[in-house]
Amino acid sequence: MTIVVGGGLAAATAVTELRAQGYEGEVTLLAAERHLPYERPPLSKDVLKGTKDVEAAYVHDADWYRDNAVTLQLDTRVTAVDTSARVVTAASGAGRLEVPYDRLLLATGAVPRRFALADEVSVPVYLRTIDDSLALRERLREGVRVVIVGAGWIGLEVASAAREAGAEVTVFEAAELPLVRVLGPEAARVFAELHRYHGVDLRLGAQVTASDLAAADVVGVGVGAAPSTELAEAAGLAVDNGILVDAALRTSAPGVFAIGDVANHDHPVLGRRIDRVVPVVEAIAASRAGVVISVDTNDAEVARHAIAAGAAVVNDTSGLGDPRMAEVVARGDPHVVITHSVGPPRAEKPAARYDDVVAEVRSFLLDRIARAEAAGVPRDRIVIDPGHDLDKNTLHTLELTRRLDEIAAIGRPLLVAVSNKDFVGESIDRPQGERLAGSLAAMTACILKGARIVRMHDVAATVDAVRMVEAILGVRAPARLEHNTHPTRNV
Ligand SMILES: Cc1cc2nc3c(=O)[nH]c(=O)nc-3n(C[C@H](O)[C@H](O)[C@H](O)COP(=O)(O)OP(=O)(O)OC[C@H]3O[C@@H](n4cnc5c(N)ncnc54)[C@H](O)[C@@H]3O)c2cc1C
User: Angle of helix 268-286 relative to helix 300-309, nearest 10 degrees?
Assistant: First the structure.
């Protein structure tokens, strides 16, 4: 029997994957809350604002667990794990139960960090569960005085929902800017301004006092979360800022695994990449600017997090080199750019050699399109890129550009990234920074050969050049018509 402990996204995804991968053994999910396993992001957004019901946060409805033979025991908190006898003890409304396991997966998530001063002088809201969100939603009303400690993601989202409800909102943040650690000063300043524009009294570099808290009708605390490791520690598992797991999610005890917020992965590089990319995607998506967010990554795990955070395009210069990438894209709804390159990115590779560079790039792209489609990516979400300069010398890239129509004939939207590339610099002998004219010429040649998406550095110059090419091709009317249009004479 496999037992999964937890009621969040990690637990629900784990049981989903077990069944999706064909696991036929018994699976039991023990979850402390009374709700079906759910995702937490809506709790500070749509659910808090009342624009979505709590059901929107559920990963599956109740039927799914029944149909997939997953025994779901809600309102059941695991209180102890005996790793030698392989038994978990749990407490539920029906009493105490002991369940033996062959494999145990801990997905107990995280708990909010407490803020002692707020606990002393008020009954603060630590937004973590559906019940917290619903209770807070009831209290956010016109004129209510809300004080929030911490201008992190959750603090600011609560501030925004409270302002929408007409509450008076003051946010105290010890740092000089909100979210500065994840966003950097420039984007952090934009966030600060946005919240002030919407009427939030944002106090930066400020410490909240007991009297600030006492004067509030509602106190919200968002000062971070810590992995929920109590159970694991008591069971004697190795814990250090989370349950320590290896790349296969194994803990220090045989047969016991951990995932999600409670796990501390032995994966420093991946962790850093996710930390660098995902907060930026979230910040742009949260600003509701309506822009299409494209993320450059070759790593399926980074892509998975970025898609969840709002990325609409995954640009993979390894052309689906990571075997899990196609599946990750298929599960979400982003477009994917499949780019030609040879071998793993950033690795040392043999010198670029092609018998026929165009034929080889074409056959690579066809193969990777088939791989994407086999994983379930719909054809209309696939974009191709021949990879100018990528594992190619200047002569290869010039030939590829000259015969780009053969790549366009594959029949998927064709993206090209030619800006500032070495083949431009070497062709006209110009260093970086002096390649704009050459880049625009290369881009124009590509468009004439069938490219329909261009990635360029100088956006203003590019837009002018593209508009001009479109006018020549007759796909866009001139912006205005004056020259020699007088009805009786040429002026
Ligand atoms: C309000 C809010 C908004 C968020 N917004 C975003 C966002 O926009 N983007 C983003 O990327 N992340 C966001 N997050 C973070 C994200 O929700 C977490 O990373 C995610 O919930 C982690 O999932 P998990 O399954 O590991 O843990 P959790 O979601 O914490 O789930 C753990 C579950 O385990 C249960 N449990 C704990 N101990 C036991 C036990 N002993 N027995 C049985 N069950 C137990 C808990 O009740 C809980 O249901 C947000 C978090 C919150 C709270």
Answer: 20
Domain 2-111+226-265 CATH class label: alpha beta
> Rounded distance, CA 87 to CA 104, Å?
9
Measure CA 185 to chain center: 21
- Tell me the pLDDT band of 345, cut-offs 50, 70 and 90: low
pTM of the model: 0.64
- Ligand 1 centroid–CA 118 distance in Å is 23
Nearest CA to 30 among 127, 94, 107?
Answer: 107
C-alpha span between 462 and 443 (Å, rounded):
9
Angle (CA) 478-290-51 rounded to 5° is: 145
Ligand 1 pocket: which of 40, 59, 228, 301 to mutate (most atoms within 8 A of CB): 40
pLDDT tens, position by position, 391-400: 999 999 999 9
Instruction: Report the range of poorest mean pLDDT among 48-57, 144-153, 299-308.
Output: 299-308
Decide whether 114-223 matches 273-473 in CATH topology.
no
- Sorted by where each begins, the domain ranges of the chain are 2-111+226-265, 114-223, 273-473
Q: Which fold has domain 114-223?
A: FAD/NAD(P)-binding domain (3.50.50)
pLDDT confidence band for 122 (50 / 70 / 90): very high
Q: What is the 3-state secondary structure (H, E, C) of 131-180?
A: HHHHHHHHHCCCCCEEEEECCCHHHHHHHHHHHHCCCEEEEEECCCCCCH
Both tokens of 197, joined, read 């524009």
Give the Å distances, CA to CA, from 150 to 43, 98, 137, 298. Answer: 17, 41, 19, 34
Phi then psi for 41, rounded to 5 degrees?
Answer: -50, -40
Nearest C-alpha neighbor of 222 from the set 145, 113, 118, 134: 113
Cα(116)–Cα(102) distance, rounded to whole angstroms? Answer: 41
Regarding the domain delimited by 273-473, which CATH topology (the fold level of the hierarchy) does it fall under? TIM Barrel (3.20.20)
Q: Is 77 in the pocket of ligand 1 (CB under 6 A)?
A: yes
- Which residue, among 231, 305, 273, has the nearest Cα to 79 in the 3D structure? 231
Q: Is the CB of 110 under 6 A from ligand 1?
A: yes
Helices (H) and strands (E) in the chain, counts: 18, 22
As given in the structure block, the two tokens for residue 179 are 């979210």
Any idea which residue has 């959750």 for tokens?
154
Instruction: Name the closest-CA residue to atom 5, ligand 1.
Output: 41
Closest CA to 320 of 402, 255, 234, 382: 382
Contact yes or no for 104/88 (Cβ under 8 A):
yes
